[in-house]
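Ops channel
N.P.: pipeline sanity check, posting one input/output pair.
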């Protein structure tokens, strides 16, 4: 766009520090934030966190990438198919261990969604992140993990893990032959969507301009290559489509968050 962009890292509280700063900024298009859904939902749906924002506090500009997750087991383990795993879990409720990331992270929510759709009940084991879950799987400390591409690609190529299914609507070129859960009879697709957002109230002409520029950038071959190198897919959605996706996640994932908070 011919203008300098200052990146200001604001870590803390699962993104809450950065998003609090965003919604307090002037809605003129000069202050934007990167966020991920459904992870962001937990920061404002938990009353104890006292977030100063909700979904309506943001003006989504675009989804810039999406990361699907895979059901992962050890290659030398007893589960050759998704059916094997689900049958074993149903026969032994809360006995099989599933790596679930941090509490109410995208990983955790994916695990809760997986249990509901498959009618299973695992013993969920929380870790600091997806990599720790993979390490626990390889070490024999858990039976199954749900992970993004970047966390498993090297172990997959080395033959250390087996993928039983993709929680996506389409198969992945990085994992040829691995079927989606939909094709195996389970209505379960879930993506972690990475979004660029402005504060609510940003003028429409500014929103439209920024959305167009993001779309143009995402068509760049270098951007696509870098995204794929991080296990992300450049699946563009405009602001309205992103807002609709966000609202849908509140409906579908929100109940899992509230149920967990009650425990």
């Amino acid at each position: 766009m011919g203008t300098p962009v200052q990146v200001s890292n604001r870590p803390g509280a699962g993104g809450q520090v950065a998003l609090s700063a965003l919604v307090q900024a002037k809605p003129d298009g000069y202050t934007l934030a990167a966020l991920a859904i459904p992870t962001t939902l937990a920061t404002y749906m938990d009353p104890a966190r006292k977030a100063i924002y909700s979904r309506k506090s943001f003006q989504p500009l675009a989804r810039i990438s999406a990361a699907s997750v895979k059901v992962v087991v050890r290659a030398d383990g007893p589960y050759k198919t998704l059916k094997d795993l689900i049958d074993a879990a149903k026969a032994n409720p809360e006995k099989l261990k599933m790596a679930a990331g941090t509490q109410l992270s995208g990983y955790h929510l994916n695990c809760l969604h997986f249990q509901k759709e498959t009618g299973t009940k695992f013993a969920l084991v929380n870790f600091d992140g997806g990599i720790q879950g993979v390490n626990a799987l390889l070490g024999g400390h858990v039976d199954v993990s749900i992970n993004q591409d970047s966390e498993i690609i090297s172990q997959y190529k080395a033959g250390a893990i087996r993928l039983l299914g993709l929680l996506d609507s389409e198969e992945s070129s990085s994992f040829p032959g691995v079927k989606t859960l939909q094709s195996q009879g389970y209505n379960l697709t879930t993506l972690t969507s990475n979004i660029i957002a402005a504060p609510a109230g940003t003028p429409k002409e500014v929103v439209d301009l920024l959305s167009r520029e993001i779309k143009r950038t995402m068509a760049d071959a270098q951007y696509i290559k870098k995204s794929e190198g991080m296990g992300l897919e450049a699946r563009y959605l405009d602001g309205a489509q992103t807002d609709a996706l966000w609202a849908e996640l509140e409906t579908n994932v929100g109940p899992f968050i509230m149920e967990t908070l009650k425990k």
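N.P.: looks fine end to end. The chain is about 40% helix and 20% strand.
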